[in-house]
Design goal:
37% of the residues lie in helices and 19% in strands. With 209 residues, the protein is an alpha/beta fold.
Length: 209
Protein backbone atom coordinates (compact mmCIF):
# COMPACT_ATOMS: atom_id res chain seq x y z
CA UNK A 1 0.00 0.00 0.00
CA UNK A 2 1.03 3.63 -0.05
CA UNK A 3 0.80 3.84 3.73
CA UNK A 4 4.02 4.90 5.44
CA UNK A 5 3.87 3.73 9.04
CA UNK A 6 6.35 4.07 11.85
CA UNK A 7 8.41 0.97 12.61
CA UNK A 8 6.89 0.88 16.09
CA UNK A 9 3.15 1.22 16.63
CA UNK A 10 1.13 1.67 19.81
CA UNK A 11 -1.40 -1.04 20.56
CA UNK A 12 -4.26 0.81 22.25
CA UNK A 13 -5.77 -2.01 24.23
CA UNK A 14 -5.07 -4.05 27.35
CA UNK A 15 -4.41 -2.08 30.52
CA UNK A 16 -3.99 1.14 28.53
CA UNK A 17 -7.71 1.18 27.75
CA UNK A 18 -8.89 -0.04 31.14
CA UNK A 19 -11.01 2.46 33.06
CA UNK A 20 -8.88 1.74 36.13
CA UNK A 21 -5.87 3.21 34.31
CA UNK A 22 -5.58 7.00 34.50
CA UNK A 23 -7.11 8.83 31.55
CA UNK A 24 -4.35 11.44 31.84
CA UNK A 25 -1.57 8.84 31.74
CA UNK A 26 -3.20 7.05 28.81
CA UNK A 27 -3.34 10.32 26.88
CA UNK A 28 0.27 11.12 27.78
CA UNK A 29 1.45 7.79 26.33
CA UNK A 30 -0.17 8.52 22.95
CA UNK A 31 0.99 12.15 22.79
CA UNK A 32 4.56 11.21 23.76
CA UNK A 33 4.65 8.43 21.17
CA UNK A 34 3.33 10.78 18.48
CA UNK A 35 5.89 13.44 19.38
CA UNK A 36 8.64 10.83 18.94
CA UNK A 37 7.52 9.84 15.45
CA UNK A 38 5.01 7.05 16.09
CA UNK A 39 2.17 7.61 13.63
CA UNK A 40 0.52 4.16 13.72
CA UNK A 41 -2.13 3.46 16.38
CA UNK A 42 -4.01 0.16 16.49
CA UNK A 43 -7.11 -0.59 18.53
CA UNK A 44 -10.38 -2.54 18.36
CA UNK A 45 -14.04 -1.70 18.68
CA UNK A 46 -14.65 -4.11 21.57
CA UNK A 47 -11.32 -3.59 23.34
CA UNK A 48 -11.28 -2.90 27.08
CA UNK A 49 -15.04 -3.39 27.40
CA UNK A 50 -15.57 -0.85 24.59
CA UNK A 51 -13.57 1.83 26.41
CA UNK A 52 -10.40 1.86 24.29
CA UNK A 53 -11.81 3.53 21.17
CA UNK A 54 -13.55 6.46 22.92
CA UNK A 55 -10.46 6.97 25.10
CA UNK A 56 -8.17 7.05 22.07
CA UNK A 57 -10.63 9.28 20.24
CA UNK A 58 -10.30 12.01 22.86
CA UNK A 59 -6.55 12.15 22.27
CA UNK A 60 -6.92 11.95 18.49
CA UNK A 61 -9.19 14.98 18.63
CA UNK A 62 -6.43 16.95 20.38
CA UNK A 63 -3.76 15.79 17.90
CA UNK A 64 -5.89 16.83 14.93
CA UNK A 65 -6.23 20.36 16.29
CA UNK A 66 -2.63 21.00 15.19
CA UNK A 67 -1.98 18.25 12.63
CA UNK A 68 -3.50 17.11 9.36
CA UNK A 69 -5.46 13.84 9.43
CA UNK A 70 -2.90 12.30 7.06
CA UNK A 71 -0.22 12.55 9.77
CA UNK A 72 -1.72 9.68 11.77
CA UNK A 73 -2.54 6.11 10.73
CA UNK A 74 -5.51 4.64 12.59
CA UNK A 75 -6.46 0.99 12.60
CA UNK A 76 -9.42 -0.64 14.29
CA UNK A 77 -11.25 -3.95 14.14
CA UNK A 78 -14.74 -5.42 13.95
CA UNK A 79 -16.41 -8.80 14.22
CA UNK A 80 -15.64 -9.79 17.80
CA UNK A 81 -18.27 -8.92 20.39
CA UNK A 82 -17.85 -9.06 24.15
CA UNK A 83 -21.26 -9.13 25.83
CA UNK A 84 -21.73 -7.63 29.31
CA UNK A 85 -20.91 -9.92 32.23
CA UNK A 86 -23.78 -11.86 33.82
CA UNK A 87 -24.42 -12.89 37.41
CA UNK A 88 -23.80 -16.48 36.38
CA UNK A 89 -20.30 -15.83 35.15
CA UNK A 90 -17.93 -12.94 35.69
CA UNK A 91 -16.00 -13.87 32.56
CA UNK A 92 -17.32 -12.54 29.28
CA UNK A 93 -17.96 -15.06 26.54
CA UNK A 94 -16.51 -13.86 23.27
CA UNK A 95 -18.84 -14.17 20.30
CA UNK A 96 -18.42 -13.07 16.70
CA UNK A 97 -20.64 -11.44 14.11
CA UNK A 98 -19.34 -11.05 10.57
CA UNK A 99 -22.68 -10.24 8.98
CA UNK A 100 -22.40 -7.37 6.49
CA UNK A 101 -24.75 -5.15 8.49
CA UNK A 102 -22.89 -5.61 11.76
CA UNK A 103 -19.48 -5.03 10.20
CA UNK A 104 -20.58 -1.77 8.59
CA UNK A 105 -22.29 -0.61 11.81
CA UNK A 106 -19.16 -1.39 13.82
CA UNK A 107 -16.96 0.50 11.35
CA UNK A 108 -19.19 3.59 11.53
CA UNK A 109 -19.15 3.48 15.34
CA UNK A 110 -15.34 3.18 15.34
CA UNK A 111 -15.02 6.27 13.14
CA UNK A 112 -17.31 8.18 15.49
CA UNK A 113 -15.50 6.96 18.61
CA UNK A 114 -12.09 7.85 17.19
CA UNK A 115 -13.08 11.28 15.84
CA UNK A 116 -11.16 10.43 12.69
CA UNK A 117 -13.44 10.82 9.60
CA UNK A 118 -12.26 7.45 8.25
CA UNK A 119 -10.11 4.46 9.20
CA UNK A 120 -6.80 3.98 7.44
CA UNK A 121 -6.99 0.25 8.14
CA UNK A 122 -10.12 -1.72 8.96
CA UNK A 123 -9.48 -5.24 10.24
CA UNK A 124 -11.77 -8.23 10.51
CA UNK A 125 -11.06 -9.44 14.03
CA UNK A 126 -10.45 -13.18 14.16
CA UNK A 127 -12.39 -14.02 11.01
CA UNK A 128 -11.98 -17.54 9.60
CA UNK A 129 -12.09 -18.69 6.00
CA UNK A 130 -15.60 -20.10 6.45
CA UNK A 131 -16.86 -16.73 7.71
CA UNK A 132 -15.72 -14.79 4.64
CA UNK A 133 -18.96 -14.60 2.67
CA UNK A 134 -19.60 -13.04 -0.77
CA UNK A 135 -22.09 -10.68 0.88
CA UNK A 136 -19.44 -9.48 3.33
CA UNK A 137 -16.82 -8.92 0.63
CA UNK A 138 -19.34 -7.00 -1.47
CA UNK A 139 -20.32 -4.78 1.47
CA UNK A 140 -16.68 -4.14 2.37
CA UNK A 141 -16.03 -3.06 -1.21
CA UNK A 142 -18.94 -0.62 -1.01
CA UNK A 143 -17.73 0.69 2.35
CA UNK A 144 -14.29 1.33 0.90
CA UNK A 145 -15.79 3.15 -2.07
CA UNK A 146 -17.75 5.34 0.38
CA UNK A 147 -14.47 6.27 2.08
CA UNK A 148 -15.14 4.56 5.41
CA UNK A 149 -11.71 2.93 5.29
CA UNK A 150 -8.68 2.88 3.00
CA UNK A 151 -7.25 -0.61 3.43
CA UNK A 152 -8.66 -3.94 4.56
CA UNK A 153 -6.92 -6.24 6.98
CA UNK A 154 -7.38 -9.24 9.23
CA UNK A 155 -6.23 -9.86 12.80
CA UNK A 156 -5.73 -13.58 13.36
CA UNK A 157 -3.57 -16.09 15.22
CA UNK A 158 -4.54 -19.06 13.05
CA UNK A 159 -1.88 -20.21 10.61
CA UNK A 160 -4.44 -21.78 8.26
CA UNK A 161 -6.35 -18.49 8.08
CA UNK A 162 -3.11 -16.56 7.59
CA UNK A 163 -2.30 -18.76 4.59
CA UNK A 164 -5.83 -18.24 3.28
CA UNK A 165 -5.30 -14.46 3.41
CA UNK A 166 -2.06 -14.85 1.44
CA UNK A 167 -4.11 -16.43 -1.36
CA UNK A 168 -6.26 -13.31 -1.81
CA UNK A 169 -4.03 -10.20 -1.94
CA UNK A 170 -6.63 -8.58 -4.20
CA UNK A 171 -8.99 -8.53 -1.20
CA UNK A 172 -6.75 -8.24 1.86
CA UNK A 173 -4.07 -5.56 2.14
CA UNK A 174 -2.55 -6.53 5.48
CA UNK A 175 -2.67 -8.94 8.38
CA UNK A 176 -1.87 -8.49 12.08
CA UNK A 177 -0.40 -11.68 13.53
CA UNK A 178 1.42 -12.81 16.66
CA UNK A 179 5.19 -12.77 16.13
CA UNK A 180 7.90 -12.66 18.79
CA UNK A 181 10.93 -14.54 20.11
CA UNK A 182 8.69 -17.40 21.24
CA UNK A 183 7.01 -17.65 17.84
CA UNK A 184 9.80 -17.62 15.30
CA UNK A 185 7.95 -20.42 13.52
CA UNK A 186 5.83 -17.63 12.05
CA UNK A 187 8.67 -16.63 9.71
CA UNK A 188 7.79 -19.01 6.83
CA UNK A 189 4.20 -17.76 6.70
CA UNK A 190 5.40 -14.14 6.98
CA UNK A 191 7.56 -14.77 3.92
CA UNK A 192 4.53 -16.27 2.16
CA UNK A 193 2.49 -13.14 2.90
CA UNK A 194 5.32 -10.89 1.77
CA UNK A 195 5.65 -12.78 -1.51
CA UNK A 196 1.91 -12.35 -2.06
CA UNK A 197 2.13 -8.60 -1.44
CA UNK A 198 0.16 -8.65 1.82
CA UNK A 199 1.48 -6.31 4.50
CA UNK A 200 2.39 -7.82 7.85
CA UNK A 201 2.14 -6.17 11.27
CA UNK A 202 3.73 -8.02 14.19
CA UNK A 203 1.60 -8.09 17.33
CA UNK A 204 2.27 -9.52 20.80
CA UNK A 205 5.94 -8.61 20.24
CA UNK A 206 6.72 -9.02 23.96
CA UNK A 207 4.99 -12.42 24.06
CA UNK A 208 2.45 -11.02 26.54
CA UNK A 209 5.22 -10.33 29.03
Amino acid sequence: TELKVSEVAVGCSGYWGNKNFSEKKAESIILTAFEHGVNFLDTGHNYCNYNAEPRLGKTIKKILLDHDRSKIILSSKAGTITPPSTLVSKRNKIVKDFSADHIEKSCLESIQNLNCEYLDIFQLHGITESQVSPQLIERLSTMREKGLFRYLGVNTHSESDIRYIAMYPEIFDMVLIDYNLLQLDREPVIKELDNAGVGVVAGTVLAQG
